[in-house]
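Anyone up for a design puzzle?
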């Protein structure tokens, strides 16, 4: 079982990423939500903006809206794109787009039959099983996909592509603690009572090699967008050099943090955001 950070070649270079930083820093200074705690911050905002702008899709599907910072960002990256913004609880929005089409339906339940999914971008920031989401994308005809929540092995609250490539599986919160079976039963009762669809059930995934094999068969590109800076500690407080945290080389080295104080200050919020392109 081995982790990977890249398969194939993304349609951009490291030099182009680094060159876009000054423009993004000016944009980020104008963000509508100054302290987006619980949502995307500088490393992933930059990555999402850069990749969406380079892909320039006519349609962007944003699954997971939260306060709306991501919707604003995608509008800036692709001002001519139609945005369909999905979230089971839209009441948390602070920024509300006049252009986006909002829905509380899940990605799996939305009618995509009249949408140009083959040239669209699906952007997932919904903390759901990324492997299952990718299967749905293939079924609905989406090829270009970004996963904001691409947690490394043993971390995070959902099964990520990074975990799948590592063969690590996924254990929901409490899954390794005594009494976890009772916890899971209680959570399932709540989920049923809430009317949640099965996509919102965070089931345990045992360690395996077949998920990684399936990803390799079906992906043309898998690209973990590099962090702007790599700090000594991850967002969980452990050493970033641990084997679980295989990471692309950062775009900038720490001494440059003086020149990029916001990027440096929010560097530890990075969680291996990735771009995946399904084979045609």
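Challenge accepted. My sequence:
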């Amino acid at each position: 079982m081995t982790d990977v950070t890249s398969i194939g070649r993304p349609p951009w270079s490291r030099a182009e990423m680094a060159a876009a930083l000054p423009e993004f820093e000016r944009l980020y200074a104008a963000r509508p939500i100054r302290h987006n705690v619980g949502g995307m911050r500088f490393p992933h905002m930059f990555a999402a903006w850069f990749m969406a702008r380079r892909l320039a899709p006519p349609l962007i599907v944003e699954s997971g809206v939260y306060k709306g910072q991501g919707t604003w960002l995608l509008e800036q990256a692709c001002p001519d794109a139609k945005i369909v913004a999905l979230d089971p609880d839209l009441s948390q929005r602070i920024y509300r787009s006049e252009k986006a089409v909002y829905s509380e339906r899940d990605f799996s339940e939305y009618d995509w039959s009249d949408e140009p999914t083959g040239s669209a971008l699906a952007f997932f920031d919904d903390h759901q099983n990324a492997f299952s989401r990718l299967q749905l994308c293939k079924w609905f005809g989406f090829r270009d996909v970004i996963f904001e929540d691409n947690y490394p092995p043993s971390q995070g609250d959902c099964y990520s592509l990074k975990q799948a490539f590592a063969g690590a599986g996924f254990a929901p919160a409490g899954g390794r603690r005594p009494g976890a079976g009772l916890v899971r039963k209680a959570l399932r009762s709540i989920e049923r009572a809430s009317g949640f669809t099965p996509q919102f059930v965070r089931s345990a995934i045992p360690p395996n090699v077949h998920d990684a094999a399936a990803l390799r068969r079906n992906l043309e590109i898998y690209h973990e967008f590099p962090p702007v800076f790599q700090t000594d500690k991850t967002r969980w407080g452990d050493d970033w050099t641990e084997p679980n945290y295989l990471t692309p080389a950062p775009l900038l080295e720490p001494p440059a943090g003086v020149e990029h104080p916001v990027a440096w200050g929010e560097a530890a919020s990075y969680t291996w955001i990735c771009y995946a392109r399904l084979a045609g």
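A detail worth pointing out: The chain has two domains: 6-170+205-278, 172-204.
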